[in-house]
Design goal:
- This protein has two domains: 270 residues, Aldehyde Dehydrogenase, Chain A, domain 1 (3-Layer(aba) Sandwich); 185 residues, Aldehyde Dehydrogenase, Chain A, domain 2 (3-Layer(aba) Sandwich).
- 38% of the residues lie in helices and 23% in strands.
- The strands form six sheets. Strands 15-16-17-14-13-19-20 form a seven-stranded mixed sheet, sandwiched between helices.
- It is globular and about 80 Å long.
- The chain binds nicotinamide-adenine-dinucleotide.
- The site of nicotinamide-adenine-dinucleotide has 27 residues, from helix 8.
């Protein structure tokens, strides 16, 4: 069995074994690795390495930083399959899906390679007689990232390439459930020429996170994970004077109007509901049908679910893999039971699924629950599994009210052939990312990603231009050089001119 190590100062460092976690192959249910849970002293060691590296890295020229990022981009590109295999082995998602994840992370690295352009400031000549004003954006210091299990390569890549490109140093605390992709990424970054201490990876649980939140040498925290933890991270981090962005859980709705292309809507609902076994923060978990859309749509959704091939992510014909742990699988299955108990109708029930030769794997089939009401537990909680709920409504107004009354606001979509209805929806819906006939509206690396309401605490979205803003602070300089005009002491604000 493999033992995972921390990564500090560009080398692996064995962690304390006082408290450890288990990494599973979710397709077989077997334990494949032991991961150390960092102690407070180990967190301090990683932060000290990052702090020491900061002045040198901050003053490294933009073109040198860019070269290292280009080299990192090439290495990640070359190792896409190695990274993807680690994701499938520890998370369980299918290999093509894992490759897609690495690709989306790569996009952010590619965005970060533009750093000389992205950090350009403003300059105004002669704001007053012989006085110029300009702005520069400077890095914050040591930034920390705390990331979830569901995108073990991509979500960290939403953070550290941009933070580091901006001149910060970084300590990443990835999910303890699937830590290996972060280790390979760190090795590749070192191979690309990143100086010691600029990127560090520390494994652990809440003990490590609490220390990062209060550590005086941490300037900024980026978090992605569930809503209760995000709220805690935001409140605690800001209380300790840090800049915090905390992206959180979700319940994403997809409205289907009666005029929609029902084949497109059915393909989209199944792909977005069951891709990665529903363990995506942008997964569609509720289909909100309007009028008779449900009767036209649901037979098509059922047909597609029946054809889904659930199996180990490494097998080429698998379309949906297992869930992350046995506990999570059982929790999701209990939601299906609760939904039926509370009055929902199971059009398909994934609880009976058995994957041959993988009886100990954490598999659950796709479940479609019809006639779900907004006061049911299946509607109110984030399930984070292969369960698609259908809420039937009589009108567009009722449908959008369902979405806007929901506390989360990560992603949403509308399926219609009516441009006016789509435009009205995009204007009225209280959600941060909106798809029009697109079920999972995740922006590319040169835009920014971020939900609203309980899906995002703090006022920054992540990566793209907002990432540059988050990881830098602006400084404004007002300068006068030639032949200063000595006007004598004047305690008033200067007048224009
Ligand atoms: P999680 O909140 O359990 O864990 C996220 C991170 O926080 C992990 O590194 C974990 O070790 C740490 N953590 C867990 N409990 C903690 C605690 N009590 N105190 C301090 N740290 C703690 O989330 P998860 O189960 O790994 O990931 C799934 C969740 O992440 C879902 O809710 C999903 O919607 C959300 N998510 C959101 C986005 C987004 O962009 N909004 C993206 C991906 C995942």
């Amino acid at each position: 069995m493999k033992t995972i190590e921390h990564w500090i100062n560009n080398k692996p460092v064995a962690g304390s074994t006082d408290r450890t976690g288990r990494v599973y192959d979710p397709a077989t249910g077997r334990v494949t690795a032991e991961v150390p849970f960092a102690t407070v002293e180990e967190v301090d060691l990683a932060v000290a390495a990052a702090r020491e590296a900061f002045p040198g890295w901050r003053d490294t020229s933009l073109t040198r930083r860019q070269k290292i990022l280009f080299a990192f981009r090439e290495l990640v590109d070359r190792h896409q399959e190695d990274l993807a295999k680690l994701l499938t082995a520890e998370h369980g998602k299918t290999l093509p899906d894992a490759l897609g994840e690495v690709n989306r992370g790569l996009e952010v690295i590619e965005f970060a390679t533009n750093i000389p352009h992205l950090l350009k400031g403003d300059f105004s000549e002669n704001v007053s007689s012989a006085v110029d004003t300009y702005t520069i954006r400077q890095p914050l210091g040591v930034a920390a990232g705390i990331t979830p299990f569901n995108f073990p390569a991509m979500v960290p890549m939403w953070m550290y390439p941009i933070a580091i490109a901006c001149g910060n140093t970084f300590v990443l605390k990835p999910s303890e459930k699937d830590p290996s992709a972060s280790m390979l990424s760190a090795e590749l970054f070192a191979e690309a020429g990143l100086p010691d201490g600029v990127f560090n990876v520390l494994h652990g649980d809440r003990v490590a996170v609490e220390r990062l939140l209060e550590h005086p040498d941490i300037a900024a925290i980026s978090f992605v994970g569930s809503t209760p933890v995000a709220r805690h991270i935001y409140e605690t981090g800001t209380r300790h004077g840090k800049r915090v962005q905390a992206l959180a859980g979700a319940k994403n709705h997809m409205i289907v109007l009666p005029d929609a292309d029902m084949d497109l809507a059915a393909d989209s609902a199944v792909s977005a509901g069951f891709g990665s076994a529903g363990e995506r923060c942008m997964a569609i978990s509720v289909v909100v049908t309007v009028g008779d859309a449900a009767d036209k749509l649901l037979p098509k959704v059922k047909e597609r679910i029946a054809a889904l091939k659930v199996g180990p992510g490494m097998e080429s014909d698998s379309e949906m893999g297992p869930l992350i742990t046995k506990e999570h699988r059982d929790r999701v299955a209990s939601y299906v039971a609760k939904g039926i108990e509370e009055g929902a109708e199971a059009l398909t029930d994934g609880r009976d699924l058995i994957v041959a030769d993988h009886e100990e794997g954490f598999f659950l089939g796709a479940t479609l629950l019809d006639h779900v009401k907004t006061d049911m537990t299946v509607y109110q909680d984030e399930i984070f599994g292969p369960v698609l709920s259908v809420v039937r409504t009589d009108s567009y107004q009722e449908a959008i009210r369902v979405i806007n009354d929901n506390p989360w606001g990560n992603g949403t979509a509308i399926f219609t052939n009516d441009g006016g209805a789509a435009r009205k929806f995009q204007n009225e819906v209280e959600v941060g990312m909106v798809g029009i006939n697109v079920p999972i509206p995740v922006p590319l690396g040169f835009y920014s990603f971020g939900g609203w309401k309980d899906s995002n605490f703090g006022d920054h979205s992540i990566y793209g231009p907002e990432g540059i803003h988050f990881y830098t602070r602006p400084k404004v300089v007002i300068s006068r050089w030639p032949e200063p005009i000595h006007r004598g002491v004047d305690l008033g604000f200067p007048q224009h001119g």
